[in-house]
Amino acid sequence: MKWLTAALLALVLIAPGCRKHEQPNGKLQVVTTLFPLYDFARRIGGDHVQVSLLLPPGVEPHSFEPRPEDMVRVNHADLFIYTNPVMEPWAARIVAGVDKGKVSIIEGGKGIPLLPAPRIDEHAPAHPGEQAEEHEHGHADEHEQANQHEHAHEHGGLDPHVWLDFNNARLIAGNILAALVARDPSHKESYRQNAAGLDKELAALDRRFQETLAACPKKVFLHGGHYAFGYLARRYGLRYISASAVNADAEPTPAKLAELVKIMRREHLSYVYTEELLNPRVAETIARETGAKVLMLRAAHNLTRDEFQRGVTFMSLMEEDLQNLKTGLQ
């Protein structure tokens, strides 16, 4: 009953003509779904935007369910930015309830082809750097793509973690820049200057990954979480093996765990990776069975409250990833 009351209140608040839209301090109001979008929008928007993250600190996005108050937040914004319909299938429900005459809806990953993800009983290609065939995805019907996403989890489906190829991250930043300039052309020069600085940093980050990982003797890494690092592996010529499929809630079977232990031993791997915001139990189990050590690998979907307070950035998270990959690839 409380939820129903809140939902009815939300409908009243967002009904056309029932509220007056205001911009605090005259700044453009931006709501993003995931942390990379949040960080890029802040960097590009600078002093002219106020950016908020829809995900509460510490919440894993694959299982996130938007609340009525989230709808209110988005309807009070000027721009709503999400990654793609496969990464955030729940964003379709938000978009359906948004006043599109006022709120600009931005697909941050628009134009980036999605790679196929393996089924839970599969692992990475047989040879380091082998690239899977890319699959274009359409943008016409977000509801249809959300339904396809539910299907995709069962059969491997598509990998939506596009920002972990830093060339893709640069494209996402470009889409955000275009959206800000279109909505607020009076500050376009500031936005373009900030975006140029971010693009330069992402290009330099890409070069550091290329040079550092090319020098590592090992080209395979094993991750005790869901399939999130396919783009990173493809970009840097690595073989990537995960315990679970794209679905972050999936659990590997005992047979899959036994297979992962065999791979660790066969490849002489001394490190197994775990992932932020998810239970490290699988990685710890593999480590106990093999004598390996556990390292963190950040997909950067979201931050903890402490990390927000410390001002952690996408760039700093990726630098940590680079150092941990360098260690794990020995």
Report on this structure.
This protein has 330 residues and is α/β, with parallel strands linked by helices. The chain has 2 domains: 183 residues, Rossmann fold (3-Layer(aba) Sandwich), CATH 3.40.50; 112 residues, Rossmann fold, CATH 3.40.50. The protein contains 12 helices and 10 strands. The termini are far apart. 43% of the residues are buried. The N terminus is likely disordered.
Output the number of helix runs: 12
N-to-C SSE string, H for helix and E for strand? HEHEHEHEEHEHHEHEHEHEHH
Oligomer: single chain
For the record, what CATH class of the largest domain applies? Answer: Alpha Beta
- As for the CATH topology of the largest domain, it is Rossmann fold
Helix content: 40-55%
Strand order in the sheet with the most strands:
2-1-3-4
CATH architecture of the largest domain: 3-Layer(aba) Sandwich
Cα-to-Cα separation, first versus last residue = 56 Å
The Cα radius of gyration reads: 20 Å
Shape: globular
Total number of domains: 2
Helix and strand content put the structural class at alpha/beta
Biggest sheet character:
4 strands, parallel
Mean pLDDT: 85
What is the H level of CATH, i.e. the homologous superfamily of the largest domain? Answer: Nitrogenase molybdenum iron protein domain
- Count the strands? 10
Beta-strand proportion:
5-15%
Low-confidence stretches: 1-22, 123-156
